[in-house]
Backbone:
């Protein structure tokens, strides 16, 4: 089932999310719905707060990035099969040089800005079967994870912009929170009682 994506301005996007247990109700159905919602919106990641749930859960499928001509064959191959669920994730360390990449967000349609992030991460998380993993990622895989991880920490990519950039997009952000935007997918706006 395709769920409405929560728009910028909703308090759930600024909350630090809570951990969940193995017994979280209807988890497999929730994951299925989240993947379907993400694909419908042409996203490469989706975090539970973006569908209104303040829980430490996000998923990624970086396959669309595997088409990028600028990547090496090895990077393309890694991203092609990079589909994962992250539950109760904790980034243990971020290392390497900061590098810039233009990011967007399904909760903030039509705004894309350059964001600096460290190139390598080490992360501990549980998968959809509650098997624990500690893994290291770099490049675009790390970036997609960092972006989604920020969501469960109550951070949006716009929070990482300079004060000048924030001022320049203030009007656009205000319009998004008021529902004054044409989105190609279902959204739920803070100023409205019902989604559309």
Residues:
């Amino acid at each position: 089932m395709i769920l409405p994506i929560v728009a910028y301005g909703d308090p759930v996007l600024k909350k630090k999310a809570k951990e969940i247990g193995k017994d979280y109700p209807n988890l497999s159905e929730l994951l299925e719905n989240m993947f379907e919602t993400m694909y419908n919106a042409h996203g490469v990641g989706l975090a539970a707060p973006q569908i209104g749930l303040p829980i430490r859960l996000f998923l990624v499928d970086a396959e669309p990035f595997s088409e990028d001509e600028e990547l090496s064959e090895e990077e393309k191959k890694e991203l092609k099969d990079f589909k994962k669920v992250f539950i109760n994730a904790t980034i243990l360390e971020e290392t390497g040089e900061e590098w810039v990449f233009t990011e967007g967000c399904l909760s903030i349609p039509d705004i894309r800005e350059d964001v600096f992030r460290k190139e390598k991460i080490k992360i501990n998380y549980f998968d959809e079967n509650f098997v624990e993993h500690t893994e290291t990622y770099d490049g675009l895989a790390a970036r997609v994870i960092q972006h989604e991880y920020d969501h469960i920490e109550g951070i949006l990519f716009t929070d990482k912009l300079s004060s000048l950039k924030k001022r320049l997009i203030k009007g656009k952000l205000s319009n998004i929170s008021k529902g004054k935007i044409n989105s190609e997918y279902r959204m739920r706006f803070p100023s409205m009682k019902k989604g559309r």
User: Anything to note?
Assistant: The mean pLDDT is 93. The chain has four helices and seven strands. Residues 5-187 form a domain with the Peptide Deformylase fold (CATH 3.90.45.10).
